[in-house]
Design brief:
The chain starts with 9 loop residues before the first helix and ends with a helix. It is globular, with a radius of gyration of 22 Å. By secondary structure, the chain is mainly α. It has one domain.
Length: about 240
């Protein structure tokens, strides 16, 4: 059996999640709209902040609980805790965060392309998580695992989103006075749109690639197990 310390990726991933949550939550725990990191769109004004707060807090619950949910050692050794944390992940994390995201995503101050991405991401996130939960309820655990891997990819995309954002801002800033004619708002719209789409589609594509690779590997293993053993005397004679 693989022991917990033999999964070298879980420790750095958990550290990244802790750092990310510790950085993201404080402005919203202050309940001060002036500290919001997202500009308030005129359609909602300060109400945007009060929708953003539950999205950030519940999203942080989903992200933090996902660390344990994807940890194979934890799932095997603590199945009851895995099921209970699964309920926290779905009902205390993804569901309320996704519903809030549908509203605030449709009113993003960073333009229509970002709005479209945010709304589609929220809808897909809710859909794949609901499919995973339903599969577990019907004890279809292989299907449950595949849907929840997709859900995790979308949950963790908030981290990759920040990475893409930094990349696009750094890459586009030298073109501020040329391509964007000094318009910082336009640059922000373009960088945000590219970030919003790549931030979740790439993790989801990687998850699909991994699932397909895993399916092929399991299928090959099953075929080898089903093949009849070659007679011993024939092996020796050859």
């Amino acid at each position: 059996m693989t022991r917990w310390w033999q999964r070298p990726w879980i420790v750095p991933f958990a550290a990244i999640v802790v750092i990310f949550v510790a950085f993201s939550i404080p402005p919203y725990l202050s309940f001060d709209p002036a500290r919001s990191r997202v500009p308030q769109p005129p359609e909602l004004g300060v109400a945007h902040f009060w929708l953003l707060v539950p999205h950030v807090l519940f999203g942080s619950v989903a992200l933090a609980s996902s660390v344990f949910q994807i940890w194979p050692w934890f799932r095997r050794r603590h199945p009851v805790a895995h099921r209970r944390l699964g309920r926290v992940y779905v009902f205390g994390g993804v569901l309320p965060a996704g519903i809030a995201a549908l509203t605030i995503g449709s009113l993003s101050p960073f333009g229509p392309a970002t709005r479209a991405s945010n709304m589609l991401l929220a809808a897909v996130w809710l859909y794949v998580t609901a499919k995973g939960w339903r599969a577990a309820r019907h004890r279809r655990f292989g299907e449950h695992r595949r849907w929840m891997i997709r859900s995790f990819a979308l949950t963790a995309s908030i981290i990759t989103n920040r990475i893409w954002g930094a990349i696009f801002v750094i890459a586009l800033m030298p073109q501020l006075e040329t391509t964007f004619h000094g318009d910082e708002g336009l640059l922000a719209w373009v960088a945000s749109a590219a970030t919003a789409w790549l931030g979740w589609t790439i993790p989801l594509l990687i998850a699909e690639w991994w699932l397909e690779r895993d399916r092929s590997r399991r299928g090959a293993g099953a075929r080898r197990s089903a093949e009849p053993a070659e007679p011993r005397d024939r092996v020796i004679a050859s």
